């Protein structure tokens, strides 16, 4: 595409105008096909084909695994682009280059570059381009313009019809699958796995985290149908051993090409160790490790792997933002995520009393999430977040009372008030209490704005 063709006729001025233009496409609107995004990317010269991609789907752990893969690739000298969702604070966070969110000026320029073609594509189809489709095109175009050596691309929802499913990725990842978005993806793990397996490509290597038996069967069937090769957690790679360490955990990982000992991971929980193993297998596959020297190169440089994992961050995932009392933020938003969170809390923290501040979206399994947390929390403060899809605090409090009993549930309509109530409950009687804020990425983003507004993303 020449420079004259890229010059927009009426470009928005500044970030606020771009945000307004994107919001006008309604972030929650989804259309299950790839027609519009394919059309737009064809006009742009198919920027997503300018670099190899690692494509990540699954139910829980996608963003953290993406950040781990990004860190590993960069430590090995690969210039990366990373596309993840949703964001904690600002939409700019979704597009990262070299491990950092792009500067606002680059984000605006990316929109300006594609803006002249949006109306054209809209006019060709019954439905307009969606918010997520436009952002996806912006990310792919940015990565081509930089340029990057590789892109780490997280699926937004599902896989088969997701706007990111225009990449021809030689490596794919499936993090643990559970029940979420059941109204869109299906109400069984088998149906959901079928949607997520839609990202598999012929000849691709696929690193699969731990899966329910039904999901594993469907993934295997889809991989066989397209001649993709699956590598399974627990069989081809995994976590050999792990122990709690100050600020995280010390793990030994079994990779596709060999073992990696004494790896410090500055994240808590068995689920994060599992994410690390999956990320490592994906990067080994990217570099040609296919099961040891007999099938390809041997293990990667262990010192580089250790350095990469030591640098990993995952904001909003068991993130400590305050002390005295300790305040922890975690974006668990479904029962499986809450169960992993509960296990990690019991392992890594010791509180005399733990009070959870919970706000969820109205399409989530609030009862299942609260039931998973019930064994490790002493009380819950039901509240709401800033999403237009937030479940009202009163409705959540009623659900919480059914799950935990009314004597363990308080109500505060505003998140800031809810945190104050939780702090008071945690510190009552001079106990060494803690506060957990959870239930949604939106909830965590809101809490970060209140408690750690300058924290990095």
Which class best fits the helix and strand makeup? alpha/beta
Whole-number mean pLDDT: 93
Report the CATH superfamily of the largest domain: Mur-like, catalytic domain
How many H/I helical runs?
16
Report how far the terminal alpha carbons are from each other.
33 Å
Beta-strand portion reads 15-25%
CATH class categorisation of the largest domain: Alpha Beta
What is the CATH-assigned architecture of the largest domain?
A: 3-Layer(aba) Sandwich
Helical content class: 40-55%
**Count of domains:** 2
Number of strands: 17
If strands are numbered along the chain, what order do they take across the biggest sheet?
Answer: 4-3-2-5-1-6-7-8
Radius of gyration: 22 Å
**What are the segments in which pLDDT stays under 50 over at least 5 consecutive residues?**
1-12
Characterize the main sheet. Answer: 8 strands, mixed
Shape: globular
């Amino acid at each position: 595409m020449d420079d004259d063709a890229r010059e927009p006729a009426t470009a928005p001025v500044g970030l606020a105008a771009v945000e307004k233009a994107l919001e006008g496409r309604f972030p929650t609107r989804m259309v299950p096909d790839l027609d519009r995004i394919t059309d737009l990317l064809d006009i742009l010269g198919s920027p997503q084909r300018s670099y190899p991609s690692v494509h990540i789907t699954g139910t829980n752990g996608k963003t953290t695994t993406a950040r781990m893969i990004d860190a590993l690739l960069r430590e090995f000298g690969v210039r990366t682009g990373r596309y993840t969702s949703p964001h904690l604070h600002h939409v700019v966070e979704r597009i990262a280059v070299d491990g950092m969110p792009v500067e606002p000026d680059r984000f605006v320029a990316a929109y300006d570059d594609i803006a002249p073609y949006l109306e054209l594509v809209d006019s060709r189809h019954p439905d307009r381009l969606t918010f997520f489709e436009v952002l996806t095109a912006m990310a792919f175009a940015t990565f081509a313009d930089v340029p990057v050596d590789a892109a780490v691309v997280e699926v937004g929802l599902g896989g088969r019809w997701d706007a990111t499913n225009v990449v021809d990725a030689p490596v794919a990842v499936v993090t643990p699958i559970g029940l979420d978005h059941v109204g869109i993806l299906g109400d069984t793990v088998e149906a959901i796995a079928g949607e997520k397996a839609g990202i598999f490509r012929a000849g691709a290597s696929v690193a699969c985290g731990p899966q329910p038996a039904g999901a594993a069967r469907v993934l295997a069937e889809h991989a066989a149908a397209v001649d993709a090769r699956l590598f399974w957690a627990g069989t081809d790679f995994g976590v050999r051993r792990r122990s709690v360490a100050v600020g995280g955990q010390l793990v030994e990982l079994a990779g596709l090409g060999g073992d990696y000992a004494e790896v410090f991971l500055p994240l808590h929980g068995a689920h994060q160790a599992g994410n690390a193993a999956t990320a490592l297998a994906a990067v080994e596959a990217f570099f040609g490790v296919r099961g040891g020297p007999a099938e390809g190169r041997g293990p990667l440089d262990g010192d580089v792997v250790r350095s990469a994992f030591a640098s990993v961050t995952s904001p909003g995932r068991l993130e400590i933002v305050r002390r005295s009392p300790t305040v922890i933020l975690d974006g668990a938003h479904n029962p499986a995520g809450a169960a992993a969170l509960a296990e990690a809390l019991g392992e890594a923290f010791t509180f005399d009393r733990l009070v959870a501040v919970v706000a969820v979206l109205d399409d989530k399994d609030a009862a299942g999430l609260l039931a998973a947390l019930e064994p490790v929390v002493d009380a819950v403060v039901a509240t709401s977040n800033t999403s237009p899809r937030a479940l009202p605090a009163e409705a959540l409090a009623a659900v919480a009372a059914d799950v935990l009993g009314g004597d363990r549930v308080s109500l505060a309509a505003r998140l800031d008030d809810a945190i104050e109530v939780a702090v008071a409950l945690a510190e009552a009687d001079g106990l060494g209490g803690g506060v957990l804020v959870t239930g949604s990425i939106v909830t965590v983003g809101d809490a970060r704005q209140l408690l750690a507004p300058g924290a990095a993303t």
